[in-house]
Amino acid sequence: MSSDELLSKVKSIAEKNYPALKEKLSPVEQTFVLRLTDGGSYVIRLSDTVLDIQPGVHPSPIATLTTSTSDLKAILEGQTDAVKAFFQGKIQIRGDVFKTQVLNSLIRGVPQA
User: What burial letters (b/e) apply to 89-112, b meaning 16+ CB within 10 Å?
Assistant: First the structure.
């Protein structure tokens, strides 16, 4: 899977899950960077009114997540859990680890209360 195809898949999943998540989000925009070890970086901007995922980098994200394309693909396809991947060292996070949980909800969907 190319990085463009992967970005398209990330956007598709995020857009599907965003409506249920946005009511739980802060009005303050949060910015994350997803860096793929085998090429490509993406800026993820998220708030209760914004979902934007674009190629690029940001000078001061809340957190930078680094992983390989194959590990991200496995997470997106449900073959690997993101939290387990973090504890196995397949995802490295520089910055606020706790705020990255919103990204897991964006990928997995919001549990119904």
Answer: ebbebeeeeebbebbebbeeebee
Is the whole model's pTM more than 0.85, yes or no? no
Show the tokens assigned to 24.
Answer: 């739980």
Domains in the chain, CATH or no CATH each:
3-108 (3.30.1050.10)
Q: Report pLDDT digits (tens) over 13-36.
A: 888 878 877 777 777 788 999 999
The span from the CA of 113 to the CA of 78, in Å, is 22
